[in-house]
Amino acid sequence: MQPVAPATHLGFEVGADRKLANWQQITSYFHRIAEQSDRILVEEIGRSTEGRPMLLSIISAPANLARLDYYRAIQVRRMTRSPSRSSKTLSCYWYHPSIRMALI
User: Fold this and answer.
1) DSSP three-state, residue 21
2) Which of 41, 45, 50, 59 gets the most CB atoms within 10 Å of its CB?
3) Whole-angstrom distance, CA of residue 11 vs CA of residue 30
4) Domains of the chain, residue spans
5) Residue 27: phi, psi to the nearest 5?
């Protein structure tokens, strides 16, 4: 099954003039596509200062998602190496509508 298109869920095209999805619409969309696809996993990783859920969306092949604990263990090992060995590897990419940062 193909996940629902953003325009279908939101009721307007993303990027349309004078249309902006609110946080509830965005989070409900991510939860909806996670229910429709075996390639998307959505986890709540905390709450914002306004009490809104902060989501982590993992998009990958079903086989990779099934081994997520294995890959997380690899990330932990990479992050705990000496800085000289791991400084050139990307450990985490954080995306927020107004903030994008890579943590190494």
Assistant:
1) coil
2) 41
3) 15
4) 6-103
5) -65, -40
Structure tokens at 98: 């107004």
Which of 14-18, 52-56, 61-65, 95-99 is predicted with the least confidence, judged by mean pLDDT?
A: 95-99
Query: For residue 68, which of 77, 59, 55 has the smallest C-alpha distance?
Result: 59
Report which residue type is found at 43: E
Over residues 77-95, the mean pLDDT reads 60
CA atoms of 44 and 56, how far apart (whole Å)? 6
Structure tokens at 24: 């509830």
CA distance 98 to 8: 24
| Beta pairing partners, 95 | 100
Let me know if 33 is exposed, middle or buried by CB neighbors in 10 A (0-12, 13-18, 19+). Answer: buried
C-alpha to C-alpha distance for 51 and 91, rounded to whole angstroms: 27
